[in-house]
Predict the structure.
Amino acid sequence: MKFDVFFSICQTEVDGYMPTERVMFEQFFDQLKLADRLGFETAWIAETHLSCETQKQNTDAVIPHFKGEIGLNTDILQLAHKAFGMTKRINLGSAIRNILCNGGPLAHAEAVKTFLTLHSLDPEEQRKLYFGFAAGRFPFSNKPYGIKPRNEVEKAGWNVIKGLVFKQATEVFLRALKSETFASASLAPLVVYAKQFRNPSEWEAVIAANTQAKLPQSSEGIVIPPFWDFETVGVIPFEAPLDLLQLVVGSHDPEVQKLANSYLPTWVFNLSITPMTMIEDTHQRMGRDFHPDGGAWDRSYMPRTSLIFINGDEGLSPEEQRAKAKAAAHSALENYWRAMEGTLDSRKVAEAVENAVYGNPEDVARQLKEKYDDHDRLMLWFDFNNHDSKAVKASMEAFWNKTRPLLDKGLT
């Protein structure tokens, strides 16, 4: 297994305590430096755009009961420059960058190319940026940038159209990264048709809306006007090197994965709620669709998040360590469900605890061995709902110094 670490930088209230933004970032960098010293391969950083707290004022708030900010990192590129300057060997990854907001895919391609140009100026630099990209978790991050239904047709078919918008953004982003010069007229058109809709009534609503909108139709279906309309452009710096970049797409749409790999080698993010059947199907499909420049597809090319609640306190017995770890898992997940849904569902909390990895170092090793393939890449999440930086670092050390050797021994 490959062991990475995941940082959420989630500023929410825990047991009545809400850290300041400064404290959150100070603790993150402190934990990052420890991860670097211990030997974790890559640090994945959650990325969020626009305030979760502010969106609660709107009538269509998507997380009305969450207190605080789900994540404080808004720009992996700025953060990575500072992070690389404070560490020696660890790679940095975005989990996940929204390429729809903040100017759209051309703007993000330009920013990434500028970062890579600066990052590679040191001829000895070998650390990579693992650039995870997706459409964004919440609609309130995209709406201010025009990524929302623009007419009644798009309103009726938005569940399908928003996926097509991200697919087109992926094409724009990757073509720009490859330093192509192109215009929006050369993009694959956005077309909606009946088979894309799970509910036939939604397609019927789209057809009805188009009797008034009169959008053009092709032999396939209704053509949606592009969300990015531009004449021929070239995104600079043209000579930005891509050898220290690894793309990771945050979508389980097979067409998006295949499209991305038609341009550049692109890994796939495993979403935490993804069924195991979909994970295995993706591995098989990517064995065929992975870009040839990336070599043969490997299971480690699908990073998987794993919640870790570990107690390695040497002053406690293994049974006491196990009990404290389980209590920590239950408390953290209970608080999470209360914040996300506003009501406490004891069944969901119990299920979430069982899906997490918790216990003493030996328990954690055994559970990871049971839950994951020997060749998986795990993004270990230690800071979930925990602002006690000392405890987070103790968990990281317990895993690296006590659990990891057990797993390595079992894999050799």
The mean pLDDT is 93. The two ends are 11 Å apart (CA to CA).
